[in-house]
Amino acid sequence: MSKDSISIGYNAKELKLPLLRGTLGTPTVDIGKLNKKLGIFTYDPGFVSTASCKSDITFIDGEKGVLLYRGYPIEQLAKQSTFLEVSYLLMNGELPDEKRLSIFTNDLSHHTILHESLSGFFSGFHYDAHPMAMMVGVVGSLSAFYHSQLDMNDPEHRRISAMRLLAKIPTIAAACYRHSVGLPQVYPRLDLGYCENFLNMMFSRPGQTYTEQNDYIDPVTVEALNLLFILHADHEQNASTSTVRLAGSTGANPYACIAAGISALWGPAHGGANEAVLKMLVEIGTVDNIPKYLAKAKDKNDPFRLMGFGHRVYKNFDPRATITRDTCHAVLERFPSDDPLFELALALEEHALKDDYFIEKKLYPNIDFYSGIIYRALKIPENMFTVMFVIARTAGWVSHWLEMMDEPTHRISRPRQLYTGYDQRDYPTKNA
Ligand code: SDX
After folding, report:
1. Residues 10-14: contacts with CB within 8 Å, 24+ apart?
2. Separation of alpha carbons 184 and 201, rounded Å
3. Catalytic machinery residues
4. I want to staple 167 with a disulfide (CB 3.0 to 4.6 A). Which of 111, 202, 232, 361 is the partner?
5. Atom nearest to 297 CA in ligand 1
6. Mean pLDDT, rounded, of the chain
7. Measuring from each residue's beta carbon to the nearest atom of ligand 1, which residues come in under 6 Å?
8. Which of 412, 384, 377, 53 is nearest to 238 (CA)?
9. How close is the Cα of 311 to the center of ligand 1, in Å?
């Protein structure tokens, strides 16, 4: 990492701040000594200009629409790899050879099963509990099962925790869905691939034969899931990954850290957007209503925003959206549907892309504009869309947690503030 510096002066003192340059990307001023030397803080709500850590995992160039996992372009990974290869890559830094992938896959499949006592947790939830609420609770409670045997200072213990999370989250996700429709949980099958096993745990019915299962373990469905999982696997320091790192910086149990990440992902400004897109389309209702809703989205006094549009980092296009847009068309061709929401989504996209407000503010469809539409075509229930994002993003969360915990000098994350409350004042004297 090459070093340079910039100077800053305050109160007749001058300080040289190192300018750090990573392999790629924006030069970054190291302000770590600013408070100690000059007695000032920096103010950056929303972390618009602040790098919270160093990382080797993922690189984004938002202007050029570039996304690299460990240096590999997302387009190449999407075309040639599988979600498990990508998970290995994110966690370990290199693509696995055949032998390593087979050990990784085998290791993962042996961690897919849930402790019977954990399976019992679901009965405590009401039938209409949102699956994301169940995910937060059940993933967090994995910490109750694995806390006492966990030595956080042992890299092998940390690796096993990461593997357990990646393996068990699809099982928990499917169990959340089964609980919500009153069906019994389905045990994971070690003979099925990652996506096939998930589809089987979601949709199989008691007494069904394997041939009958073919309609939901369909190759196009498996391919589309694998692709969406790759595209959602990591995205550098997004809100949920930053939450995992923040929780992890305190030395908290990894299962509790991932539950914190799931909570952060649930919001409609983040991973909850894919479910929100579908709700928005239902609200818009017909193509004729699009101009009215575009006007609402542009109105500062109206809280309505176009879900699935805009991104903090991408200002020209989201490369994942380009890929999902094509997949969306392929899936709709494979599963022809007269669902009016698909036509409405395409018309909304067309109108927004021609609208001056969206052009000027560089607001384009992001990955989650299309992911919800694809999941709907694959018959994944709407309240499971963000859970699908959780399954994929677990690969990124555990990779960032491992990276942070491997750093010998990582410190607790503790931002400062600009206090705007009362000056000191006296407690009112009470009447005797
Ligand atoms: C994900 O960070 C990641 O990497 C996230 C993610 C990942 O993989 O982890 O990519 C996944 O979270 C995708 C984003 C999903 N969210 C949505 O689709 C929800 C709708 N989008 C927005 O709420 C919003 O665009 C965000 C949250 C995505 C980005 O917020 P920013 O960076 O804070 O943008 P902003 O609010 O500063 O917007 C700039 C301007 C504002 O207008 P002005 O104040 O300049 O006049 O654009 C307007 C905003 O009001 N604007 C929108 C809009 N998004 C931004 N106006 C209408 N509709 C929108 N969707």
Report:
1. 10/38, 10/39, 10/40, 11/38, 11/39, 13/37, 13/38
2. 10
3. 270, 311, 368
4. 111
5. 57
6. 93
7. 46, 235, 238, 269-271, 273, 297, 305-313, 361, 363, 366, 368
8. 53
9. 5
pLDDT band at 339 (very low <50, low <70, confident <90, very high): confident
Cα dihedral 269/274/275/280 (nearest 10): 80
- Ligand 1 centre to CA of 243 (Å) is 18
pLDDT in tens, 397-415: 999 999 999 998 889 999 9
Choice from 281, 366, 389, 399 to test ligand 1 binding pocket (greatest atom count within 8 A of CB) = 366
pLDDT in tens, 283-303: 999 999 999 999 999 999 999
Q: Which H or E run contains 294?
A: helix 290-298
- In the sheet that holds 66-69, the strands lie side by side as 58-61, 66-69, 72-73
Mutation test residue for ligand 1: of 279, 280, 305, 307, the one with most atoms within 8 Å of CB: 305
Mean pLDDT, residues 235-253 taken together: 97
CA distance 11 to 371: 52
The predicted-structure confidence for 359-376, as pLDDT tens digits, reads as follows 999 999 999 998 998 999
Report the C-alpha gap between 274 and 371 in whole angstroms.
6
Kindly give the distance from the C-alpha atom of residue 123 to the centroid of ligand 1, in angstroms, as a whole number.
Answer: 37
Domains defined for the chain, CATH in brackets:
2-51 (2.20.28.60)
> Residue with the nearest Cα to atom 23 of ligand 1?
269
- Residue 19 has what DSSP assignment? E
pLDDT score at 351: 96
| Cβ proximity of 189 and 197 under 8 Å | yes
Residue 56 alpha carbon to ligand 1 centre in Å: 26
3-class state of residue 398 by DSSP: helix
Q: What angle do CA 30, 33, 34 make, to 5 degrees?
A: 90
